Amino acid sequence: MADPSGAAPRxxxxxxGGSFDPPHLAHVALARAAVEQLGLDTLHVLPTxxxxxxxxxxxxxxxxxxxxxxxxxPVPRARVDARELRREGPTYTIDTLRELRRExxxxxxxxVIGADQAEALHGWRDSAEIPRLATLAIAxxxxxxxxxxxxxxxxxxxxxxxxVELPPMPVSATAIxxxxxxxEPIDTLVPEGVARxxxxxxxxxxx
Length: 207
Ligand SMILES: Nc1ncnc2c1ncn2[C@@H]1O[C@H](COP(=O)(O)OP(=O)(O)OP(=O)(O)O)[C@@H](O)[C@H]1O
Ligand SMILES: O=C(O)c1ccc[n+]([C@@H]2O[C@H](COP(=O)([O-])O)[C@@H](O)[C@H]2O)c1
Prior knowledge:
binds adenosine-5'-triphosphate, alpha/beta, binds nicotinate mononucleotide, Rossmann-like_a/b/a_fold, globular, 6 strands, nucleotide-binding
């Protein structure tokens, strides 16, 4: 229905961040579902720079950026945004939200995350400010051996969110790295171009 005030609807600008080491089919499905279901005008796909919250060090930025482009360039309205890879120091989503708020002062920002990250969100830098800058959109995440992660909404700062419906896809980048290390195929788990790039650059062959 048209807004009776005649005001144009606010643009919805999405953010979807991750280590993407490597990006896999659940990431791509989540990005597509977010664009469609949330009515996003744009989705910034943000490979993480320095992941302060992960124990292992990530693959070099140039590889993760190339892999992200191969995976997400075909997703309508998604654009791979390298700002977190270029930023000095640890990556905090709040910094990216503040930048995008300045760049899109009239838009609604929508932060897209999997349920596992939503449950950890209270531990993120300046987590209480996040729901003031962005609407949260949360996708269920399947565990490899069980059903979807039961999502506990009490963890969401601010208490409100939208959901992104995704068929359970029990795939993780950790499992893909392990398969490559063991010489097993990964073609059913990642986009074709991603599998080819991993092979050509000998990524993930040793732990
Ligand atoms: N299978 C999945 N289903 C739903 N969401 C997912 C899935 N895999 C990753 N995500 C979400 O995508 C975002 C980026 O995830 P990330 O790049 O860390 O992938 P990952 O598979 O969890 O990696 P790793 O195994 O290295 O921790 C996070 O918000 C995460 O919750
Ligand atoms: O801002 C933080 O403190 C923060 C803490 C943990 C994770 N994040 C972001 O959450 C996104 C998903 O993280 P991950 O670990 O699933 O790759 C990615 O964009 C990270 O930068 C952000």
